[in-house]
Amino acid sequence: MSPDDDRNDGLFGGSGETRTRLPEGEGGDDVYGARRSTRPGRGSSRSLVTVVGVVVLLIAAIAFANRGGDDSSSADGDGKKPDASSTAATGEKPVRGKNGGIPSGFAHDEQGAQSAASNYAVSLVSADILKPDRRAEIVRQLFVSDKVNALQEKFDKTYSKEFLDKIGLDDKGNPAPGQTYVSRTAPVGTKATAYSDSAATVEVWCTGAFGTAGQDTTNPVSNDWFTLTLKLRWVDNDWKVESFQSKDGPAPVNGDNKISTADEIAKAVQEYGGFTYAR
Asked: What is each CA distance from 223 to 65, 130, 183, 186, 213, in whole angstroms?
């Protein structure tokens, strides 16, 4: 869907929750929103925990019994220890450096393409993408050069002053004093659906926390699940984005979690840094 699509003129989906979107074409559908399902009752949750606990204990007991009294390791610790190689990291080194805080220099193989897609998904659905100055830098770093100008226009049109007003941000993408805008994305997994030495298509399954933490906010922080599909091209010794699109889900049933206060969410965002993701 495009920024001009009538369905996207407003910020709210059918259920009334805030929903922020990415441009389409070289963008896609709504990327995240506060879609909430009915929370399960505590009684059923506790029953499930009890059942899981019993199963874990049974598995542990069976594993212990299957050892069959194996005393191959002596009490003085002379038993055979695993080689260092058995616990060492495998695969290509995920990234050689960073450019403006965004990972760059990914390996020229399928793993490198998946690592690039994961890290680029984090930047594309971040709080920084709503800041005009930072957005221009992100678009320039992530996308192939022949797409930059057109995408810059689409992003600027999508994240207009009117749009920012609706989610409580000023024209610089900053929240009101005393509030913290949250847009933190975490890739859960990746899948390469096409790959060659010059191009790749990678799906990135993501979750995250999105909204505004603070007193009197009309856009409280909630979580969402979505999948970004990125088409990548190998140019200038790195993977760059040619186009992308998004879709909702797959989303699990919401857990029976205690909802944190706005102050707790804001503190967590400030204290916990993000990761460089690797496949």
From this structure: 42, 18, 10, 11, 13
